[in-house]
Design goal:
It contains six helices and 22 strands. Helix content is about 10%, strand content about 35%. The protein is mainly beta and about 400 residues long. The protein has a single domain, classed as Cupredoxins -  blue copper proteins (Immunoglobulin-like, Sandwich), CATH 2.60.40. A hairpin with a 2-residue loop joins strand 16 and strand 17. The termini are far apart. It is globular.
């Protein structure tokens, strides 16, 4: 009987009629319903189907005043009164260190040199990362307060991205939060941001799509907005991006899944001894801008000086609230600006004071042997006005001449 019932059921209600409606949805209707489905992207560092462009012609064109140590400057073109900048997000191969002779070594008096230390352990480390215009970190973008700017972003990464202007107060549709304030910039696509800058200070730009991966791979850069009315004329202006990496021995690929205890620390994507030194003349006013896009804070210390903290990512600090110190802590996701007058001539160390951030790969030998300085370490060289002049502290009383002493007596 069951067999006869099934035959009758099939005659009255054919299988096609009993099927659910979605099985009969036309193809174009299916696509309409699935338009939010995530497309498939290349999983690697680089999509071989996306050609890598040469840097824009404005790359390396210094039209501002900031020296981002070891990173080319980025110029702009003009469209009327609008400054137009170009950023190409793309895979980058970055040399962190090749254990070269430091750029400042020739400045060290012969009797003080410890060349044997630099010869003790040679490390070569390159990484495959992501950056902008062939550079990691990307070039520093310089604006003036009040500028109308346009930034054209081309995506040559193997996955979507968007660019967030970290610390800038902008219209919501310019914030760069993909999926919230704009659609993602798909691989091969170009997107344009345009806004007026009403602040001054040191800020950052970075990817805001899949940011744990993309920022950790180096899709970051600095922004400097010069004020309309500066408190002081700055003679030398330096910018340094602080980053950390976990790199397994023999690998060129950062391990972005490792959240604790990175074994490489860099200034502008380089570890000592590859980091260029800062060179200034005695008497010049110096500003150093520090930006941190890592997971850890960095207490940056200078020898020979107490500087003044003059700015954060919130902008300039009122003079009544400024503090002097020889060490400035830079928390993750923030910037700090320090200033000082270079009165004290000589070679002065400049480094992170977390000691495992000034060696490369964390260690030389186990047990630890002699290790050259690595990581976040470079030198400030203050060229003396008169190399033969006696050393004198700014607070040191003036010595009275024989005639002055005679007048007192």
């Amino acid at each position: 009987m069951l067999f006869i019932f099934l035959i009758l059921l099939n005659l009255v209600f054919p299988a096609s009629a009993r099927s659910s409606d979605h099985q009969h949805t036309p193809t174009h209707e299916k696509h309409k319903h699935d338009h939010h489905a995530m497309p498939t992207f290349h999983k690697g560092w680089k999509d071989p189907h996306i050609p890598i462009s040469a840097p824009p012609k404005t790359m390396g064109k210094q039209m501002g005043t900031v020296d981002t140590l070891g990173i080319p400057a980025l110029g702009y073109t003009l469209d009327g009164k609008v400054k137009v900048f170009t950023l190409i997000a793309q895979p980058v191969e970055k040399l962190i260190t090749d254990s070269r002779t430091p750029s400042w070594q020739h400045l060290v008096p012969e009797k003080n040199r410890d060349d044997y230390l630099f010869m003790h352990h040679k490390i070569y480390q390159k990484i495959k990362c992501w950056g902008f215009n062939g550079s990691m970190p990307g070039p520093t973008i310089e604006f003036n307060e009040g500028d109308r700017v346009r930034i054209i972003v081309k995506n040559e990464l193997p996955e979507p991205l968007s660019i967030h202007w970290h610390g800038l107060e902008l219209p919501n549709d310019q914030d760069g939060s993909a999926g919230l304030t704009q659609p993602p910039i798909m691989p091969g696509q170009t997107y344009t941001y345009e806004f007026t800058v009403y602040q001054s200070g040191t800020f950052m730009y970075h990817s805001e799509f899949n940011l744990m991966k993309q920022d950790a791979l180096g899709s970051v850069g600095m922004i400097v907005v010069h004020p309309k009315h500066a408190a002081h004329k700055i003679d030398k202006d330096f910018a340094i991006m602080l980053q950390q990496w976990t790199i397994l021995p023999g690998s060129e690929y950062p391990n972005i899944a490792a959240m604790n205890n990175p074994n490489w620390a860099t200034f502008n994507g380089m570890a000592a001894p590859n980091i260029p030194h800062m060179a200034v003349k005695q008497g010049e006013r110096v500003r150093i801008r520090l930006a941190n896009m890592g997971l850890d804070s960095h207490p940056i210390h200078i020898h020979g000086y107490n500087w003044t903290e003059v700015g954060t990512d919130g902008g300039p600090i009122p003079e009544s609230a400024q503090q002097k110190s020889s060490t400035i802590n830079v928390p993750p996701g923030s910037t700090r600006d320090v200033e000082f007058v270079a009165w004290n001539p000589g070679l002065w160390r400049f480094h992170c004071h977390k000691l495992h951030h000034i060696v490369n790969g964390h260690a030389d030998d186990i047990p630890l042997g002699l290790m050259p300085h690595g990581g976040m370490f470079t030198i400030l060289y203050v060229e003396p006005k008169d190399p033969k002049a006696p050393w004198k502290h700014p607070n040191q009383p003036e010595e009275k001449s024989a005639n002055q002493w005679q007048a007192i007596i």
